[in-house]
From TrEMBL:
Protein known as: Troponin I2, fast skeletal type
InterPro entries, per the entry: Troponin, Troponin_I, Troponin_sf
Keyword Coiled coil carried by entry: yes
Record bears the keyword Coiled coil: yes
Length: 170
């Protein structure tokens, strides 16, 4: 709670330092992978002996072709296992979503006019206006001039006083 906020320049500096360190780690990892690959190839795949007659070379090529075929079969089997596992994972994810159910987000209040609401629903191609006032027919007001009989103002005040007493008593 009593921590000071980091300034943006400090944050950017730290971020750039972290990125530089990560970049050096990635470069080192690439170098290590190259060295490991060379060591593996030297151990498992000794350089071919190409000295000899044509029959020996043909035999060597057949061995290489057999090895390539075997490795291709293994790679294909591994790929099919991975694809099957991925499909199973996707099916399980769908089952989980079906079991849990999709949570509907809370609706937000949006201030929108009826015209813009219709435009959002129907698209901009349809031109529908909800200006209902334009559909109303015009009505002319007739001016009525009725003159109320002007009574005695004192009597009016006495009526109001009686009403006031009625409310105060209850």
């Amino acid at each position: 709670p009593n921590r000071k906020k980091m300034t943006s320049s400090r944050r950017h500096h730290l971020k750039s330092v972290i990125l530089q360190i990560a970049l050096s780690w990635l470069e080192q990892e690439k170098k290590d992978n190259v060295v490991a690959k060379e060591a593996y190839m030297a151990e498992h795949c000794p350089p071919p002996e190409l000295s000899g007659d044509q029959a020996a070379l043909m035999e060597f090529c057949k061995k290489l072709q057999a090895a390539i075929d075997k490795i291709d079969e293994e790679r294909y089997d591994a790929e099919s296992k991975v694809q099957k596992a991925n499909k199973e994972i996707e099916d399980l994810k769908i089952k989980v979503v079906d079991l849990i159910g999709v949570k509907k987000p809370a609706l937000k209040k949006v201030r929108m006019s009826a015209d813009s609401m219709l435009q959002a629903l129907l698209g901009s191609k349809h031109k529908v206006t909800m200006d209902l006032r334009s559909n109303l027919k015009q009505v002319k007001k007739e001016v009525k001039e009725e003159v109320k009989a002007v009574g005695d103002w004192r009597k009016n005040i006495e009526d109001k006083a009686d009403r006031k007493k009625m409310f105060e008593s209850s």
